[in-house]
Amino acid sequence: MKKISKLMLCTLITATFALSTISFGQLPSPESNEKDIYVAGYRFDEMYSAALWTNGVRQQFADKIDYGKAYDVYVSNNDVYVASYELKGQIEIAVLWKNGVKQQLSDGTNSAKAYSVYVSGSDVYVAGYEESKKRETAALWKNGIKQKFDANEKDAVATSVCVSGDDVYATGWKWNGYRFNAMLWKNGVKQKLSNDLHDAFAKSVYISGSDVYVAGWELNGKKHIAVLWKNGIKQRLTDGTSHAQAFSVCVRGSDVYVAGNDGSNAFLWKNGAKHILNEEEKNAEAASVYVSGDDVYVAGCEYHANDTGKTVAVLWRNGIKQKLSTSVSKAFKIFIK
Asked: Which end of the chain is more exposed for a tag (fewer CB within 10 A), N or C?
């Protein structure tokens, strides 16, 4: 299977949409908004290690993690779930943390990663992949037990999972032998979101009522185009004149928010209109968006070339930035309770 890391990173896009606040400063304290803010990512000191920030403070996991990354966080009642992986020797282990206590989802025979977690009632769903005979296979774990996709989706990766009623949705991509197809699975049954003309990738799924939203990107010639699919119908968020990718989608009422970037700038789209989040002199990425009440939160990172020379995890609330770390770090997912 082709490796995703070979894809080109994005470049510059301008923005026209303005949030209610576009100045930068410190995030208000949790007491002022009565919300708990959870961000999953990683921090690099001597090696990569999974990180979870709660209200801007990094939490400690129960076990020492020598190498790993946390890709997603979900909070249900008072329980905090984190989807991640850790490295043991040369094998990547898919891991789910519950309140800092580790559960291995894969047995270490083959490499695996957990990218997304969603809790519905007493059921905990995790999406990712597991290698089999050096081929990546889309994986969905329910309460720690691996489920089967339709036709055992080999050469595929599941990046996001969401549950609505009795239906379980997962999204990701599948290699068909010559192209990557953006995929949506509903109860394990696949739906291709893209055609076979260009590579395409689905990164995030969100269910609102009877509507299914998927954020991702496609390649048109040599350019990445940020894409939002609604019920399988594609909307291009960028025109293809420069590279762009969409990583996360969140819906509140009639408003659809998408987070993404172009390798230089972090973007937030609201109903298709664009806003640039980072300061002009700093490169940035926007990895996740979450809307709570009147507040729009975006998690990602900035590269501080002019001062620290580091990539650091950041959180924007209504355009106001908070650094989550002074070490090299990235934020992948945000959840508000």
From this structure: C
Torsion 58-62-65-69 (CA) sign: negative
Q: How far is CA 134 from the centre of its chain?
A: 24
The CATH number of whichever domain residue 151 belongs to comes to 2.130.10
| Position 163, amino acid | V
CA distance 206 to 225: 20
Please give the torsion angle defined by the CA atoms of residues 264, 269, 273 and 275, in that order, rounded to the nearest 10 degrees. -50
* 114-141 tens-digit pLDDT: 999 999 999 999 999 999 877 899 999 9
Q: What is the CA radius of gyration of the chain?
A: 18
Domain of residue 178 covers 4-336
| Structure-derived torsion over alpha carbons of residues 272, 275, 278, 281, reported in degrees to the nearest 10 | 110
C-alpha distances (whole Å) from 35 to each of 71, 106, 258 are 21, 34, 21
Instruction: Identify the helix (H) or strand (E) that includes residue 146.
Output: strand 145-147
CB 39 within 8 A of CB 324: yes
Q: Work out the pLDDT band at 24, boundaries 50, 70, 90.
A: very low
Q: Please, which residues have CB within 8 angstroms of residue 200's CB and are 6 or more apart in sequence?
A: 173, 179, 180, 181, 182, 193, 194, 216, 217, 218, 219, 227
Spatial distance between the Cα atoms of 62 and 99, rounded to a whole number of angstroms: 9
pLDDT tens per residue, range 160-218: 999 999 999 999 999 988 899 999 999 999 999 999 889 999 999 999 999 999 999 99
pLDDT for residue 220: 86
